[in-house]
Each structure stands twice: as C-alpha cells, then as structure tokens.
From TrEMBL:
<dbReference type="InterPro" id="IPR036812">
    <property type="entry name" value="NAD(P)_OxRdtase_dom_sf"/>
</dbReference>
<dbReference type="InterPro" id="IPR023210">
    <property type="entry name" value="NADP_OxRdtase_dom"/>
</dbReference>
<dbReference type="Pfam" id="PF00248">
    <property type="entry name" value="Aldo_ket_red"/>
</dbReference>
<keyword id="KW-0560">Oxidoreductase</keyword>
<protein>
    <submittedName>
        <fullName>Aldo/keto reductase</fullName>
    </submittedName>
</protein>
<dbReference type="InterPro" id="IPR050791">
    <property type="entry name" value="Aldo-Keto_reductase"/>
</dbReference>
<feature type="domain" description="NADP-dependent oxidoreductase">
    <location>
        <begin position="16"/>
        <end position="307"/>
    </location>
</feature>
Length: 333
C-alpha cells in the first residue's frame, strides 16, 4: 500500500482512507456484517486511515469500528474522528458545540465507544460560530498534552480560520469535499494548506456517487440524504449524470471504471491529497483500491477535466441551510 504523509511533519498513512459514515447513516440501510467485513478487507489490503464521526449513527459508527478492530488490530489503524455536530432523537442536525468542556466530554465518550486510550486525529466537524477557533483548538491541544489525542485536524474550514487554528497548535489535516465535481478548495484553501504544510483528507471524490456508475433511481432509497440535495434533484441530476457518462466513456477507453478514474485523478493532485473512499461493501472497496495502480498522463488529465469541468456541475453540494454553515465556502476578507 502506498503511503502519504498527513502534513509536513505528520504521520504516514495509507494513500487511500476508508470513510465509514455510510455504514451507519445517511446513505440508506447498511448491513453490519458486510460493513465489518469491509473494514477487515481494508486492513488486509494495507489501508490504515479510517474516518468516522461521533454523530454517525449517534455512536453506532464508532462501536462498529471498535468491533472491527478487536484482537490487536487497533494498532494497525489510524482513526480520525469528527465531533461537535448536535442532533435530536429524530436525527435532525440542530447545531454545533465546540466549547472546551463539550469537547472533553465528547472525547471521553468516543474513547469509551472505540475502547481505545487515544484518538489519532480529532477534529471539529464544522466551525462553531459561537466559539472562537482558538478556544476549540486550544482545548484539543490540552488533550494532546494529556495523551488522549495525537494530532489535530479541521473539517470544512476556510483559509482564515485554518491560519488562526494553526497558530494555536499545528494542524495535520483538513477534511473537505474535493473531487472532479467539487474543486473550490483549489482557489484559496489548498494554497494556504500547502503554505502551512497541512494535508487534505478528501471526501466526495466520486461526487457522492455521481461518478460511481450509479443511476438516478439509486439515489432515491429510504434514508438517503442525497434525495434532498440540490445536485441530485430534477434537471440538476440529469445534467450531472450526463457529465458522469462523459467520464465513463474515457474510462472505458482505458479499461477502467469511471469511479477508478475519478479516484486516480484525485490521487494525482499531489502527495498531500489523501482520498477517502466511502463504502460499506467489499467489492466497491476492492474496485476503489485498484485505482492506486492507474497512472494518468498530462493529456489524460486534460481530457478528464474537460469532460467533467466543475463549472458545469449543477446544484450546490449541500442544501442552502447547510451551505451557510460551511466556513470553507466563505472567502477571505
């Protein structure tokens, strides 16, 4: 398994990480037995980076990882955990809380659910507008000093916030949506990260399934949040699936799948980009890992980007309310 460094002075992790969210939430029903088998297959293939959140299934995702990592497997895994998102019993998101005491409480529960003494990388899921980022990072830094956290990350935060956070404590990685269909990070955030020596763990590399060979009907299953997302509705969806078909045509010429080509494109963006493969299925995991063998020429990269220009993608990546919560969508003053 190819390794990449999580930040200039950070740890080495597998070049592809496994995003575990769909095993517990948001993408419709999941089978725990298959999810556990998928995590095990990832470990056997050399995947070390596993991404979760304490609000994925309200603890279910962490408990699933705990089960998968029993029997001495914990030391083979680099676990990054997002925290701070608040949800009600019906699953609705009702805000964020990254006050220092709330952070320490959330971390305590996470350590218990994962049955571990430490978290490899801990990060707020979003910027809490009521709490200065300095306070949030400062509280995590205290947990680093105490040995409960090894590295600090951020998720979906903009360049100014990243700079302020990095002044308090070195930031190892930023988790953010980045792929052929979502390239806004390249304008301001990615240059800032490279200046500061911070890596990217990229989610949404397949456009949340749009580039994964899926059909319109696949996005309308019960419990699948994509049915309520602008990119997956009406004319927007039809437009975006047309872009996906263009990528499929290029992939067919190369003898690979569109998903593999999209992952290979993300891998080509730099050694500081670590794509997260979000899957709850062993076969899809195996297909994704095969992308590591694909090498793209400058001409092929140009054709891919011309076939799926981010400017042609219809619809925002979240609904209007959630878009307003993304610090990463705000430009520096």
């Amino acid at each position: 398994m190819e390794q990449r460094r999580l930040g200039t002075n950070g740890p080495r992790v597998s070049a592809l990480g496994l995003g575990c969210m769909g095993m517990s939430d948001f993408y419709g029903p999941a089978d725990d037995k298959e999810s556990l088998a998928t995590i095990d297959a990832a470990l056997e293939a050399g995947v070390t980076l596993f991404d979760t959140g304490d609000f994925y299934g309200m603890g279910h995702n962490e408990l699933l990882l705990r089960e998968a990592l029993k029997g001495g497997k914990r030391e083979r895994a680099f676990i990054q955990v997002k925290f701070g998102a608040q949800r009600d019993p019906g699953g609705a998101f009702i805000g964020f809380d990254t006050r220092p005491n709330a952070i320490k409480t959330a971390l305590t529960y996470t350590l218990k659910r994962l049955n571990t003494d430490y978290i490899d990388l801990y990060m707020p899921a979003r910027l809490d507008p009521a709490v200065p980022i300095e306070e949030t990072v400062g509280a995590i830094a205290e947990m680093v000093q105490a040995g409960y956290v090894r590295h600090i990350g951020l998720s979906e935060m903009g360049a100014d916030t990243i700079r302020r956070a990095h002044q308090v404590h070195p930031i190892a990685g930023l988790q953010i949506e980045y792929g052929l269909m979502t390239r806004g990070v390249e304008d301001e955030i990615l240059p800032t990260l490279r200046e500061l020596g911070i890596a990217v763990t990229a989610y949404g590399v397949l456009g949340r399934g749009l580039l994964g060979g899926m059909k319109a009907s696949d996005f309308a299953k019960p419990g699948d949040f994509r049915a309520h997302t602008p990119r997956f509705q009406g004319e927007n969806l039809a437009n975006n699936l047309t872009l996906a078909q263009r990528l499929e045509a290029i992939a067919a010429e190369k003898g690979v799948t569109a998903a593999q080509l999209a992952i290979a494109w993300a891998l080509s963006r730099g050694s500081d980009i670590i794509p997260l493969v979000g899957t709850k299925n062993r076969k899809r995991l195996g297909d994704a890992l095969a992308a590591l063998e694909i090498k793209l020429t400058a001409e092929e990269l140009g054709r891919i980007e011309a076939a799926v220009p981010a400017s042609a993608v219809a619809g925002t990546r979240y609904d209007a309310r959630q878009m307003q919560m993304l610090d990463s969508e705000r430009r520096s003053a």
